[in-house]
Design a protein that fits this description.
alpha+beta, 7% strand, two-stranded antiparallel ribbon, elongated
Length: 82
């Protein structure tokens, strides 16, 4: 587990890093106010990308380890009885 600081995860643009209060047009819509960026996406998606960036390469949503190798989580299959 990686502890990620909460401040600005929903206000920071996950594309360029620009932070401003006016970026959350609605509860669900994020629009970057950086004139050189203008990225748009769902606000929760933007925040989750910021959390993922802050956590670094140590974790992924699929349980992979830092070197990018996924762990097999399924039990071995048993041969069917004839």
């Amino acid at each position: 587990m990686v502890k990620v600081p909460v401040p600005n995860t929903s206000r920071r643009c996950s594309a360029c890093g620009f932070i401003t209060l006016g970026s959350r047009e609605t509860q669900a819509r994020f629009v970057c106010r950086n004139p050189g960026c203008g990225a748009e996406c769902n606000a929760d998606t933007n925040a989750s990308r910021n959390i993922d960036h802050a956590a670094g390469p140590a974790v992924s949503g699929r349980g992979a380890v830092a070197d990018g190798q996924a762990e097999k989580r399924q039990p071995p299959t048993q041969p069917h009885a004839a």
